[in-house]
Specification:
Number of helices: 0
Oligomer: single chain
Distance between the termini: 55 Å
Radius of gyration: 22 Å
Strand order of the largest sheet: 2-4-6-9-12-15-18-21-22
Number of strands: 31
Structural class: mainly beta
């Protein structure tokens, strides 16, 4: 195993003449008070790198994390730089900053389904690219601290695969803030504002609905809006005595079940049956159903019932 130790220096990685295809790989261990700066070309990190300095990706640089960089103090992806992979980067107290023009992406070309983990806080002024993930599971970016999301989110539509539903993009352990410049682009088409995002319960989700589907979100025992979808136990009815325990993606409405709607169950419902049970009283007409994953490490896939 290669071991490189430092006390306050900087490792600078250059790609060479053919920057598009040039690549440098680290399969050993780099430790100590070192900074890592990568320029044009790809830098692959395998195994674990223990250095405690800052990490910077310059214009044209691509940093692929397959292992872990758990102690780097801060990560900066500059304009034209890229961070992706299926490993972990950043200490608990660090901030990963994706500058305007920079990109963060979960997975990589050969494995777009696994997750990229940010150890500390994440601020995105640039691009969040989820276009490699076409299904409604996997390919997440998990943030160990606070998430500030202000850039452009790129995604593919899931209509060709599973139709309407909710797809998780980000999980965050701390708080979340979104800026006025947050935007969504699906298949190259701007979607406008934050209308297609669902934010709450430590998740940032993409909500997609076919033109014929009326999405209705299960809200358990909550009969009035709480500004987020709560889920939980409850009774599902369709007659005149039905409770107003259905809401919209933002949790800002309450209504009884509307026949033929597309039912979405999130959080402590069917995806986590130990936290809630749903009782169906009588006959209900359903246009389709989605049970979203609990994201508890055991279940990361959505389940669908589509007539």
């Amino acid at each position: 195993m290669q071991i490189l130790q430092g006390m306050g220096g900087t490792i600078t990685v250059f790609a060479g003449q053919d920057a598009q295809y040039a690549k440098e790989g680290f399969g050993g261990n780099v430790s100590g008070q070192l900074n890592l700066v990568t320029y044009a070309g790809a830098t692959d990190v395998y195994n674990e790198m223990d250095y405690s300095g800052a990490t910077t990706v310059k214009y044209g640089g691509r940093l692929h994390i397959y292992g872990s960089v758990p102690n780097t103090s801060n990560v900066t992806i500059e304009d034209g730089g890229l961070l992706n992979g299926v490993g972990t980067i950043g200490s608990r107290n660090s901030t990963t900053y994706i500058q305007t023009g920079g990109t963060i992406e979960s997975g990589y070309a050969a494995n777009p389904w696994d997750d990229l983990k940010i150890g500390g806080n994440l601020t995105v002024d640039g691009i969040s690219d989820f276009t490699r993930t076409t299904s409604q599971h996997g390919g997440l970016i998990k943030v160990g601290g606070d998430l500030t999301l202000k850039g452009e989110v790129l995604a593919h539509s899931s209509f060709d695969y599973v139709g309407s539903g909710v797809r998780t993009l980000y999980l965050y352990e701390g708080t979340v803030q979104t800026g006025d410049k947050l935007s969504l682009n699906v298949y190259g088409t701007p979607q406008g504002g934050t209308d297609s995002f669902q934010i709450g319960h430590h998740q940032v989700n993409l909500v997609e609905a076919n033109s014929t589907d009326n999405l209705s979100f299960w809200n358990g025992t909550h009969m009035t809006p709480t500004n987020q979808v709560e889920g939980g136990s409850g009774v599902w009815k369709q007659d005149d005595t039905a409770q107003t325990n259905w809401t919209n993606a933002a949790g800002t409405e309450s209504a009884p079940w509307a026949a033929g709607s597309y039912a979405i169950f999130q959080h402590s419902t069917a995806s986590s049956p130990e936290n809630g049970a749903i009782t169906v009283a009588g006959t209900v007409d359903v246009g389709g159903m989605q049970f979203t994953p609990a994201h508890n490490g055991n279940d990361t896939q959505s389940y669908y019932l589509i007539p």
